[in-house]
Amino acid sequence: MKRTERTGTIIKILTDSPNKLFSLSYFTKMFNAAKSTISEDIAICKKIVENMSDGEIITVAGAAGGVKYIPKISNDAAKEFQKYLSDKFNDPSRVLTGGFLFTSDIMFDPYVTKQAAKIFATKFMDLNVDYVVTIETKGIALALMVAEALNKSLVVMRREGKISEGSTLSINYISGSSGKIQKMSVSKKSLVPGTKAIIIDDFMRGGGSAGGMAEILSELDIETVGIGVLIATKEPEKKLVNNYYPVLYLDNHNDPDKKIHVYPNQDLF
Fold first, then answer.
1. How far apart are CA 142 and CA 61, in angstroms?
2. Residues 186, 189, 194, 196: what is their CA dihedral angle, to the nearest 10 degrees?
3. SS3 string of the chain?
4. Domain co-membership, 153 together with 258
5. Are residues 120 and 252 in the same domain?
6. Within-domain flag for 269
7. 187 or 176, which is more confident?
8. Does 145 map to a domain?
9. Domain identity same for 65 and 122
C-alpha cells in the first residue's frame, strides 16, 4: 500500500472503534511494514484528524500501549449543532394537542444521536466510567451512541423485569413529571459493584427517572458520576437530581397557552 492508502485505512479503523486501543504490531502485520513506518503514518493521521476538529488520535506508551481515537466535538461545532437542533424542535408543527412536543423522529435520527453523543463523550471522557445507563425510553438510541463513543457497555433499565435477565433489583420511584409512583428494574448480572456509571436520557422534566436510576445504581454500590440529557425543561427549577447536563433547554412544556421555546444550554463546556 502507498502511504496515503495506509493512513486512510488507519483512520477508518480507529474512528470505527472509538476509544479502542490498537497495538502498533496490529498495523505492522496488517500492512507488512516496519514499526518506524507505521509510527510515521500515525503521526500523519493525528494531524489529519486534528485539522478536521473531529476528535484526536493518541498514542499510549509501554508494552501494553498502542494507538486509539478519542471522539470529541469543538465548541464551534457543538454550538452549530445546538442551533440546528433548536431550530428543528421550535418548528410550530411539532406542538401536539395539550402542548406536548413531538420528538420521536429527532430522537431516532442517526445524525442527531451521533452529534449529541460526541458532546457527552467530550463532557464525560475523563471520568473513567465503566457503564452508560439509561431506561427503556426514546433515549436508548442516544445512550447507545454514547456507549460506543466511550467504548463502554450500555445498560438499559426496564419498567418491568424480564425472566430472561435472571436476578433483578427493582425499586419504586416518584416520577418528576406526574408525581406518580413508578417502577424500574435492572439485571444484577449486567453491573459490577464498585464501579462508576453515567446516566443518559432523552428528556428531563422533574428528574424522577434519572433519580430512580441513580438510586438503583447506588443500591448496587455503583457511583453515578454524571447525567446527560438531550432536553431539560426549565420548570420545575428544582429537579430531583443535581448533577445533570442538558444540551438544550425547553420552556413552557405542557402549557397550551404559551409558545414552546427550545434553546441551547450556553454552559455546554
1. 32
2. -60
3. CCHHHHHHHHHHHHHHCCCCCECHHHHHHHHCCCHHHHHHHHHHHHHHHHHCCCCEEEEECCCCCEEEEECCCCHHHHHHHHHHHHHHHCCHHHECCCCCECCHHHHCCHHHHHHHHHHHHHHHHHHCCCEEEEECCCCHHHHHHHHHHHCCEEEEEECCCCHHHCCEEEEEEECCCCCCEEEEEEEHHHCCCCCEEEEEEEEECCCHHHHHHHHHHHHCCCEEEEEEEEEEECCCCCCCCCCEEEEEEEECCCCCCCCCEEEECCCCC
4. yes
5. yes
6. no
7. 187
8. yes
9. no
**The domain spanning residue 14 has which CATH number?**
1.10.10.10
Q: What is the pLDDT of residue 162?
A: 76
pLDDT in tens, 48-101: 999 988 899 999 998 888 999 999 999 999 999 999 999 999 999 998 887 788
Q: What is the pLDDT of residues 96-124, one digit of tens each?
A: 887 788 999 999 999 999 999 999 999 99
Does 102 lie in the same domain as 41? no
- The total domain count for the chain is 2
Domain hosting 125: range is 75-264
Average pLDDT over residues 150-157: 97
In a domain, 123, yes or no: yes
pLDDT at residue number 38: 96
The domain boundary, picked from 51, 70, 89, lies at 70
Check whether 217 has a pLDDT greater than 60: yes
Say if residue 155's pLDDT is above 90: yes
Residue reference for cell 451512541: 145
Residue 253 pLDDT > 90: no
Indicate whether 128 pLDDT > 60.
yes
| Final residue of a structural domain among 70, 93, 122 | 70
What is the Cβ-side half-sphere exposure of residue 182, based on CA atoms within 13 angstroms?
Answer: 20
